[in-house]
Amino acid sequence: MATAYMCHLCQKTFNRSFNLKRHLDDIHSMASSGDGINTFTCARCGKQFNRKYNFTRHEESCTRRQTKKQNGSQSQHQIEERVGQLETQKKQFEREVTEEIARLKQHPNNILQVICVTNNDNYLDMLTSKIGDFNLAIDYIKECALSDLSGDCRLIEKIYLDPEQKQFFFMDPKKSNVTYYNEQKEQIVEAKDTFGRKLANNLQNSYLKSINFLINRNLNARASPNKFLEDYDVQTWNTHIYNLSDTCYQRRMIGQLKIPTK
């Protein structure tokens, strides 16, 4: 009868001493405890096992749990850091708006009275000075930004074409050129398409500044970002800003504006 070799740790038998030795090395290797039994200790949690297979499974599971926990902590830290940055930007923006309003109040003969047109007109600031209330101005621009072409025309006419004030720019009888005044109070005659690009660029910059303010205000109030998307329809807003770069869109806008002819 062949000699049987039994493992003293798990009582498994082998018909060759070589197989028993390999079993001990593969399954029960590692540090030995005080009673002579080999044990496997998890370096992460300290739990011990007397079989290598069980130890290996536990170690993999323990590693996954710890990695997931670390990643979760990092993500939360990144979110808190980003919120802090946005809150700082919001405070800076509000300070700039307050300073701009104060500056406009100190200079009554500004571009709103003369109705000049420049390459960097900020309609949020101009409208705030015109109606005297920032919250009303931001709400008005929000409605225009979500109303596509009709909203653009409504905002431009609100800024430049107040029927209660003297008109400072006109379109020629052929409707090919626009006459207006620049920031130096110089009269400029410009092709209709070029003038349309100028207005579209000002609209894009004003809409971007306005939507950034609303996003920051939402974060500061700790409102749900998902709810904010439903309330203000950011996708529609961004698509509108993108459309303002299109030449055909700009021509349609100029065509619908109630610019007097002269």
TrEMBL record:
Pfam families: zf-C2H2. GO terms for molecular function: zinc ion binding. Residues 5-33, 40-67 form the C2H2-type domain. Residues 64-87 are annotated as: Disordered. SUPFAM superfamilies: beta-beta-alpha zinc fingers. Residues 78-87 have a biased composition (Basic and acidic residues). This is C2H2-type domain-containing protein. The lineage of its organism: unclassified sequences, metagenomes, organismal metagenomes.
